[in-house]
Structure prediction request, 391 residues.
Amino acid sequence: MNNAATTPVKQEVFESMKPYFAEDYGNPSGFSNFSERSKDAIEKARDTIAGLLGASGEEIYFTSGGTESDNWALKAIAFANRKKGTHIITSKIEHHAILRTCEWLGKAGFDVTYVNVDENGFVDSKEIRRAIRSDTILISVMTANNEIGTIQPIREIGTIARERKILFHTDAVQAYGHIAINVNECGIDLLSASGHKINGPKGIGILYIRKGTVIGSFMHGGEQEHGRRAGTYNTPGIVGFGKATELAQASLATRSTFESELRDYLIDRIIAEIPYSRLNGHKTKRLPNNVNISFKYVEGESMLIMLDQKGICASGGSACTSGSLDPSHVLLAIGLPHEIAHGSLRITLSEEATKEEVDYVVEELKKIVQRLRSMSPLYEDFIKEKKENVQ
Prediction:
């Protein structure tokens, strides 16, 4: 129940990777036939990944994952375009790979505007338009939020960016392979994605860079990736990402329908059967597999521990911030008070999930919430006050 954090490598993906560990292990940057086999496999994966985005293979650059891709996009664009301006626009609910990079850029002399979101987590394209200045060089808004699942109006934002001749980057790590994205139709100039979110291996990602975009290198050294990203190719990882993309593309429509129906069933049961709970994010304009619920008078960390004891793996938010005791910046941005944000649970399904598993989760969750509330002085005071008001 925590597939937004990571996913298992599918057997077909694992099998596609195996030859490039110990058989066709040649360095793809070499000039032998042995090396060519690895190089050909990489280029095939590159074309497959590009195809899912409506891009060309030469616009796909391999990285170590979404965090590197986000850092590369923001830092390299900022410094490459510094003479044009120093203003960047992003949203308050971005992944920390974006927010902390923006914070770093702020210390390096750039000015960052963080636009608000509404109660469902939507970025208002009108707010983006109002935030644009004569020195704005980049807009970065995620395709879909990793915590509450809200899908952003990327096409509208891309249109605005194109009209004003501003580069547009989107962090699509949580959305790639789960919803349809076409970089040309949406006016996207740069896009980040990661293999392990779609049943591919960890440690491999991509940055899509539209042809003609002025951007500097992020990793310096050899001439790999047209000199833009140095380092020996992770051939097994790239091949695995390509295969995972192929499988994700083939099942996208049926998987989305299945996960959406199961998601809605789970949401409806929780809201109906556990009082004082609320859905975070939009009811329908959300990732097919994402469920994020807040429970009043419940402490989230205790809830996660008790779920884990019942064999249920879930999350309080982004896996990248699981060591933090602070409430989710996303939930605070949509207007939740600290005490409710602290009692939030993110459940993310997969195509392997079953209705029986979902029913088990709901039944155990009901018991856990009831038990935690029975130990809460705040909940006790709330019930007492409610009874007095009725009398």
